[in-house]
Amino acid sequence: MTPPQRQRREPAPEPSKPKEGEGKVGNPERMYVVAGPDGERAELDLVTLIVARAVDPPPSATPEQAALLRLCAAPLSVAELSAYLGLPFSAMGVLLTDLLTAELVHARSPIVRQAVPDRSLLEAVMNGLQRL
Amino acid sequence: MDFKGSDTIPGPRAEDQLPHTAQAAAKIVIVGGFGVGKTTMVGSVSEIKPLTTEETMTQAGIGVDDNFGSATKTATTVAMDFGRISITDQLVLYLFGTPGQQRFWFLWNGLFEGALGAVVLVDTRRLEVSFDVMGRLEERGVPFVVAINSFPDAPRYPMDELRTALDLAPGIPIMECDARRRASSRDVLMTLMRFLHSLAMTGSRT
Ligand SMILES: Nc1nc2c(ncn2[C@@H]2O[C@H](COP(=O)(O)OP(=O)(O)OP(=O)(O)O)[C@@H](O)[C@H]2O)c(=O)[nH]1
Ligand SMILES: [Mg+2]
CB distance B25–A110 less than 8 Å? Predict the structure, then answer.
């Protein structure tokens, strides 16, 4: 019996947009949040780590905000926050923009893939996996 | 997915909390067609009970009867399972099992842009269900390794026959695994890391 045959694909010249026929998507491909008082835009990632700056939510906090602040007393990824809060990832953008602007939380940027992989990072990960 | 209300939210258990020293996180994606064992692999290596994040997609109707030109809209929920491995006090690794339905894969593309690499899980009973996602990784330049999840009744092909069938570029590792076993899943992740490391040594990317 012969297995079905695949055809390798070439890297797309530039980040490909959803193709015709895949439909228009209501959500943006990337999500940005306002990080910092200077209105700087940062990309929000599933593994951006969020940490509350203060333990107690201010009285002005909405229930969602208060819940989020309590969850990230210790660092927690946006994915985990989304899972615990029961909110879709897209809803996290708005929630976090407000909290970042109000300086109630910190965001720690994720480590993202580089054109040439970072060897010391990979070695650290290998050492960590070895201990698993 | 509705907001659960602040009093009812079970947060991470005390032992599941990251230390304050956690500086940054990286992610790996585990992809493959429907039912190949993605969730199983995430669960077998994760230090936390796997969690689920969801996204609701609003898609303009396409390729369906359009009612005299009026656009139809469909909302679809795509769920992703994920787990976590603390590497050091500063560094955390997240593993995401991405949905198998090929027509939704692109919706998460922006989110997976920064992934260090991917594990493509394949089931030899349905090799073709993983073809589309492999092509998408190639298009995006996301390095990947292939893990054959060995189901008992699955046909067994020689590795070189599978390499040919999957049209793997030279150098891409392919191995057998049992996603239910932590040691086996860990070996797959280790193979991915060694592969990424070799790309760093040659200074190139596939
Ligand atoms: N024999 C065997 N069974 C496995 C293995 N890995 C997963 N399974 C079983 O296969 C079934 C599907 O596994 P899942 O982990 O749910 O697969 P999935 O890819 O997450 O599936 P979807 O999310 O529905 O696409 C489950 O019943 C698993 O227990 C394996 O290595 N060997
Ligand atoms: Mg699954």
Answer: yes
